[in-house]
Amino acid sequence: MIHFKNFISKFGVVLSLVLLLSSSSLFAQDGKALFQANCASCHALDKVLTGPALRGVEDRWPSRADIHSWVLNSAAVLKSGNKYANNLFNQYGKVSMTAFQGTLDTKQIDAILDYIKTAPQPKADNGAGGAADASAQGDGSDNSLFYGIITVVLAIVVLILIQVNTNLKRVAEKKAGEPQLQTPTPWYRKKSVLVFLVVIVFLGFGYCLAKNAIGLGHYQNYEPKQPIFYSHKVHAGVNQINCQYCHIGVYQGKQATIPAVNICMNCHKAIKEYTGAPLKDEEGNDINGTAEIQKLYAYAGYDPSKDGTNWDASKAKPIAWTRIHNLPDHVYFNHSQHVKVGQVACQTCHGEIQNMNEVKQFAPLTMGWCINCHRTTKVQFKDNGFYSMYEKYHDELKSGKIDSVTVFMIGGTECQKCHY
Fold first, then answer.
1. Per-residue confidence (pLDDT) for residue 414, from 0 to 100
2. Per DSSP, what are the bridge partners of residue 104?
3. Which residues cross the membrane (predicted)?
């Protein structure tokens, strides 16, 4: 029992050291992770997106306390008459910033601000296109593996030093003539230690099993190869093509819709070759933009050498795009409710789509992620015809013009109420 207590005390020292060293790496990553999860959909460090660029944000506000108030509840700051906040609100189209009260606390906001302050500056564009972007990303890479290796090495050194100390103590006692106890059983052969290790392994296995089971069906960062290398960075970013030009259903219905081949051909009957910046895929391979346009012509059944004459539509076929965002069958999601009524920017769910060559699933699309958004997103009640319709019925009931409201009056006979 004494040996077991000695082992537990030594194990506690080692475990504390490991946790201390590991935590320093985790804390260093907190600000970046929080920024990516809460800010990156609307803000970048060095360029304007839905909101302003955030590098140097502390220089533009009087104090961190003011930034805390703005992030937690921007509406309250605007009502207080803060001049800078109101100018910012007017400058960016009077779009209210999401209130993060209940989602972030002041310590987490400070971690984000520390990350913004210490994030590496972007490298100047030297014409290398994707190579420059890759090098810039490398500067801010995650060092968790490096810190993990150092932690393991130091833990091994500590165990060796503990064992050396024990052996030296035994030698000193023997030299001093003190009575020697029977040679103790090595710690790794003791039943109590073996039971302890089995419990640790069992708990670790259970944790990993539960964590992976919870993650079933979650495909964040899923980035499949598509039949045509379609760059949103070129179309939505460089050429500023509005998302709704291709995804025509996003304002009118549940589905955003995948554009038909003829929508692509509206432009590419005239644009027959790619002359923009070099294209690279996520692996760094060069992409021939003109060859990708030729693939589009093959799907459209179009012969560019004939300048559109004798276009054989019978050879046309739909492009077999691989679906990226896929919700379970029991989940109802309507794009028009979010984009048109809720005025939610595309980047909120899809990330900086205008900077993506190959599209990936940016958000986790989990129930918790959606609920957190619903908890903080404000409803646009003002000048909203949907809600004013219900106000009308309340007024008519009070005046006696009607005695009740039927399901038909609130759209109960619309097909999509039951069939979606």
1. 77
2. 101
3. 145-164, 193-214
Residue with structure tokens 């809600």? 387
Long-range contacts of 100-108 (CB under 8 A, 24+ apart): 100/38, 100/71, 100/72, 100/376, 101/72, 101/73, 101/376, 102/375, 102/376, 103/38, 103/372, 103/375, 103/376, 104/34, 104/38, 104/71, 104/72, 106/68, 108/30, 108/34
Residue 52 structure tokens? 């302003």
- Tokens 């008459």 belong to 81
CA-based max dimension of the chain: 108
In this predicted structure, what is the pLDDT of residue 180? 60
Which residues lie closer than 8 Å to 369 by C-beta, 6 or more apart?
363
Phi, psi at residue 279, to the nearest 5°? -105, 140
Q: Which residues of the chain have pLDDT under 50?
A: 1-5, 8, 18-28, 125-141
Contacting residues for 380 by C-beta, under 8 A, at least 6 apart: 341, 342, 343
- Separation of alpha carbons 132 and 285, rounded Å: 14
DSSP state for residue 182 in the 8-state scheme: P
Which domains are seen in the chain, by residue range?
Answer: 39-139 (1.10.760.10), 232-376 (no CATH), 385-417 (no CATH)
In order of 176, 272, 295, the CA distances from 268 in angstroms are 93, 6, 12
Strand partners, 193: none
**Residues 6 or more apart in contact with residue 274 via CB below 8 angstroms:** 288, 289, 290, 292, 293
Cα–Cα–Cα angle for 69, 70, 73, nearest 5°? Answer: 75
Prediction pTM value: 0.50
- Give the separation between CA 336 and CA 334, rounded to whole angstroms: 6
Instruction: Tokens 């059983």: give the residue.
Output: 185
State phi, psi for 171 to the nearest 5 degrees.
-65, -40
* Inter-helix orientation angle 2-38/191-214, to 10°: 20
Contacts of 304 (CB under 8 A, 6+ apart): 272, 297
